[in-house]
Amino acid sequence: LEQVAEILEVARFSPSAGNMQNWNLIVVTDEKIRGKVAAACKGQDWIAQTTITYLGKLRSGNRTSLTGAM
Protein backbone atom coordinates (compact mmCIF):
# COMPACT_ATOMS: atom_id res chain seq x y z
CA LEU A 1 0.00 0.00 0.00
CA GLU A 2 2.90 2.35 0.69
CA GLN A 3 4.28 1.76 -2.81
CA VAL A 4 0.89 2.59 -4.34
CA ALA A 5 0.83 5.87 -2.40
CA GLU A 6 4.34 6.70 -3.64
CA ILE A 7 3.41 5.98 -7.26
CA LEU A 8 0.32 8.17 -6.98
CA GLU A 9 2.31 11.00 -5.38
CA VAL A 10 4.89 10.95 -8.19
CA ALA A 11 2.19 10.78 -10.86
CA ARG A 12 0.28 13.64 -9.26
CA PHE A 13 3.24 15.96 -9.66
CA SER A 14 4.40 14.70 -13.06
CA PRO A 15 4.94 17.43 -15.66
CA SER A 16 2.16 18.27 -18.07
CA ALA A 17 1.50 20.83 -20.77
CA GLY A 18 1.23 24.23 -19.15
CA ASN A 19 1.74 22.53 -15.76
CA MET A 20 -2.01 21.92 -15.66
CA GLN A 21 -1.94 18.37 -14.19
CA ASN A 22 -5.28 17.87 -15.89
CA TRP A 23 -5.84 14.28 -14.84
CA ASN A 24 -7.32 12.12 -12.13
CA LEU A 25 -5.74 8.83 -11.14
CA ILE A 26 -7.88 5.81 -10.37
CA VAL A 27 -6.56 2.70 -8.61
CA VAL A 28 -8.55 -0.46 -9.32
CA THR A 29 -8.00 -3.41 -6.98
CA ASP A 30 -11.32 -5.24 -7.41
CA GLU A 31 -10.92 -8.24 -9.73
CA LYS A 32 -14.40 -7.92 -11.25
CA ILE A 33 -13.90 -4.26 -12.06
CA ARG A 34 -10.48 -5.00 -13.60
CA GLY A 35 -12.25 -7.54 -15.79
CA LYS A 36 -14.72 -4.88 -16.94
CA VAL A 37 -11.85 -2.47 -17.62
CA ALA A 38 -10.10 -5.16 -19.68
CA ALA A 39 -13.25 -5.74 -21.73
CA ALA A 40 -13.71 -1.99 -22.24
CA CYS A 41 -10.11 -1.79 -23.47
CA LYS A 42 -10.88 -3.93 -26.50
CA GLY A 43 -10.31 -7.25 -24.75
CA GLN A 44 -6.86 -6.61 -23.30
CA ASP A 45 -7.15 -9.53 -20.89
CA TRP A 46 -3.77 -8.90 -19.25
CA ILE A 47 -5.35 -5.95 -17.43
CA ALA A 48 -7.66 -8.30 -15.53
CA GLN A 49 -4.68 -10.40 -14.43
CA THR A 50 -2.85 -7.57 -12.64
CA THR A 51 -3.00 -7.10 -8.88
CA ILE A 52 -3.52 -3.36 -9.13
CA THR A 53 -4.50 -1.35 -12.19
CA TYR A 54 -3.84 2.38 -12.48
CA LEU A 55 -5.99 4.40 -14.82
CA GLY A 56 -5.32 7.96 -15.84
CA LYS A 57 -8.40 10.04 -16.51
CA LEU A 58 -7.53 13.02 -18.71
CA ARG A 59 -9.65 16.16 -18.57
CA SER A 60 -9.68 18.41 -21.61
CA GLY A 61 -12.52 20.92 -21.79
CA ASN A 62 -15.74 18.93 -21.98
CA ARG A 63 -13.96 15.73 -23.03
CA THR A 64 -12.76 13.00 -20.71
CA SER A 65 -10.83 9.91 -21.74
CA LEU A 66 -9.21 7.03 -19.90
CA THR A 67 -5.67 6.12 -20.79
CA GLY A 68 -3.22 3.52 -19.67
CA ALA A 69 -3.34 0.56 -17.37
CA MET A 70 -0.56 -1.44 -15.77
Report on the structure:
This protein has 70 residues and is of the alpha+beta class. The protein contains 2 helices and 3 strands. It has a 3-stranded antiparallel β-sheet. Strand 2 (53-60) and strand 3 (63-67) form a beta hairpin. The two termini are 16 Å apart.
What general form does the structure show? flat
Report the sheet with the most strands, covering strand number, pairing sense and barrel closure: 3 strands, antiparallel
Given helix and strand content, the structural type is alpha+beta
Strand order of the largest sheet: 1-2-3
Strand content: 25-35%
What is the radius of gyration?
Answer: 13 Å
Total beta-strand segments: 3
Order of helices and strands: HEHEE
The span between the termini is 16 Å
Low-confidence segments, given as residue ranges, are none
Helix content: 25-40%
Total helical elements: 2
The average pLDDT is: 79
